[in-house]
Amino acid sequence: MTPGQMLLMGFSGLFTRLENDFSDMLDAISAVQLPDVWKKVDRVKEAGAIRVYIIRILIFYLIFIFLQSDTHKHRSDFLHTGK
Question: For the whole model, what pTM was predicted?
Fold first, then answer.
């Protein structure tokens, strides 16, 4: 057996063991019973994370509407003429 083949077999064995251990870990995690209170905390965290993106989208739309409105056009004329 060449050194390259030995190295390949060694890595193959390591990755096979890693795959088996990872599968065992996923099985153990899925078997854990979580309290209902923890699920509520997760929902609050998710809502907090989403809030930032929603606020950014709302600000974008407000600016877009402001730029499209007639009021903005009059204000820009006012600023450019100095009246």
Answer: 0.41
